[in-house]
Amino acid sequence: MSNRIIPAGFLGASQILNGLVKKKEIAGGAVAVARHGQLIYRDYAGYANIEAKLPMGPNVIYTIYSMTKVVTSVALLRLYERGCFHMHQSVGDFLPNFKKQSVLVELEKGKTELVPAKSPVTMKQLFTMTSGIPYGNPDTPAGRMMKETLEKAKGLVTKDYANEAGKSPLAFHPGEKYMYGFSTDVLGAVLEAITGKRFGDYLREEIFDPLGMKDSGFYLSPEQMERTALVYRADKGKLTPPSREESRATLVRPNFESGGGGLFCSMEDYGRFAQMLINGGTLDGERILGRKTVELMTTDHLNNSQHKDFLASHIGQKGCSYGLSVRVRTSIADAGLNISLGEFGWDGMPGCWFSGDPKEDMYVLFMIQRFPGGQDWIHYRMLAGIYAGL
């Protein structure tokens, strides 16, 4: 493919990528590295859609899942810079169901007790996942109750859908722990409450259009649908395409636009977004954030107790802590990676992965679409190959 860029130092990274395809660990993948504002490495392997014989390439669109969180954080931080909220402000000021919340305390022998929250959830706690707001999943009693709450809220637009989540009890008192959950989705609802705009419209006007991100959004056009990678299930050398229920690709604008995991995006588009962050909030004359706001976003915000929860929740994020919706590299030794302190970013459940490295003035994008989650062993191998090329 003519647009590949593979200097000699990055041959190892390309061998890793091709090896993953050959062993059917992934259907296909794409990787890009930019340093000092210039693309220095880009490669593709395998297929975005095996059945349609769509090869991985520059125009492929990915379901980026939780990489959406970084975009949502930037969107809210634009409002923070405009004085629309402060970090210690109560979420209940914007979403009324987050006033006077309760906490579902787990007792012995599986019993639970509802108690009043000691303090309201703050905006900063949404950014840092220390709010106690769980995902709607069966892992915890609070998660099971949240699942029931959100099932009843189906069909509502983002602001109203996330506001309903405030009726469900928290998993712990705000600020006492870290727990990966529904917090970033609530941020999207707060944005709608502040601006009076649909979340997707705000992203288009304030981030996507200024940065030239033409293939990013919460739903797809028919032409974009044809360029979208399938999320394959990989098991013992066999790749299975997603069922209709598993596929998130949609031509219809969703009522609930998930700030936690709902975006589609091309690698080129996310690269422009990543370069903006590495540049300190600007790209091609467009300022999205101030330099000091990017520094705030990429600073470790967890205390020691919360950090232990973070590491327990994200086994693959060794040597990291959490900023405002991004991981932050705090220890090279614990990471066991040839990487830089201060590296930041996040990933998505099917293995797509973003890294920003301010010390090297560099970003890395690694785009794959693979179930089940937990792709850290792939990321570590790829990172070792990429940093070897510097």
Key terms for this structure?
390 residues; 33% helix; alpha+beta; 13 helices; Methane Monooxygenase Hydroxylase, Chain G, domain 1; Beta-lactamase; 17 strands; eight-stranded antiparallel β-sheet
The value of Rg in angstroms is 20 Å
CATH topology of the largest domain: Beta-lactamase
Task: Give the CATH H-level superfamily of the largest domain.
Answer: DD-peptidase/beta-lactamase superfamily
Structural domains: how many? 2
- Derived from helix and strand composition plus strand pairing, the structural class reads alpha+beta
Q: With helices defined by DSSP (H or I, 4 residues minimum), what is the helix count?
A: 13
**What fraction of residues sit in β-strands?**
15-25%
Q: Biggest sheet, in brief?
A: 8 strands, antiparallel
CATH architecture of the largest domain: 3-Layer(aba) Sandwich
Q: What would CATH call the class of the largest domain?
A: Alpha Beta
Helix content range of the residues, please? 25-40%
Give the strand line-up of the largest sheet. 3-2-1-16-15-14-13-12
